[in-house]
Amino acid sequence: MIRKISIGIALGTCVAISQLAIAPATSAESLKVKVDSVKSGKMIPDKYTFCVPMAQGHAGPGPDISPHISWSKGPRGTASYAVILNDTDSPKENRDKMNKEGMTVPSTSARQTFYHWVTVDIPANVTSLKEGNDSTARVPHGKAATPAGIGARGLNMFTVAFATNDAMKGKYYGYDGPCPPWNDENVHHYHFMVYALSVKTLNLGADFDGPAAMEAMKGKVLAEGKLDAVYSTNPATGAKIPK
Which of 16, 38, 151, 170 can bridge 119 by disulfide, Cβ–Cβ 3.0-4.6 Å? Predict the structure, then answer.
């Protein structure tokens, strides 16, 4: 029960997270992106989420496994890849109403981008990340910067969301999956994005985040592709409560 409560407190009191992301470039070429068990426009399986809908307490901890993602080979000159997952429906307004009994986050609330997965400097000879490359479980206080798999991990925005929660605060690197408010009137849209880059490394150093990675990619994108999906923990917007 304590873990369930921590979700509402952390995400409900978080300050503004980020402005809407802008693609670093308009690419002449595109990549085909596939994510195992995730279908375009459909609900992301609970296996890949940070929290899941529940009959008691509305939402609880999810498995939080990073999915297997693959993409077509980049064009000539590709020196590395970057993988980004973001939610473009994170509330910017009415955050004080998030996960609060007797309240809802209105569909008219302004929205902003929340980065869930930031992995860069993936070698040019790699066109997939295996399941679990950047997360094998939901880890309070966050996962390490150095991955067991491939690429360099950046900070996702749970680092900000849990900054004032003693039970959860820490540096959240790599992947942590969807966890939209259980009382949001909107379904959240998630974008699995892959960028083919002209440089081997973005030279971002320690503790870079999603916005820093997007900024560093400007002028270096040779091709890009994405897969769009959705998720909700609100039964009113399609969440399935386990029996």
Answer: 151
**Taking the CB of residue 167, how many other CB atoms lie within 10 A of it?**
13
Q: Find out whether 176 and 67 touch, Cβ atoms under 8 Å.
A: no
Tokens 């609970």, residue located = 46
Phi then psi dihedrals of residue 110, to 5 deg: -60, 150
Burial of 126 (0-12, 13-18, 19+ CB in 10 A): middle
Given the structure tokens 């973001």, which residue do they identify? 86
Radius of gyration of the CA atoms of the chain, in A: 17
How many CA atoms are closer than 13 Å to the CA of 118, on its beta-carbon side?
31
Structure tokens belonging to residue 154: 């950046």
Token pair 């994108």: residue: 221
Question: What digits encode the pLDDT tens for the residues 111-169?
Answer: 999 999 999 999 999 999 999 999 999 999 999 887 667 999 999 999 999 999 999 99
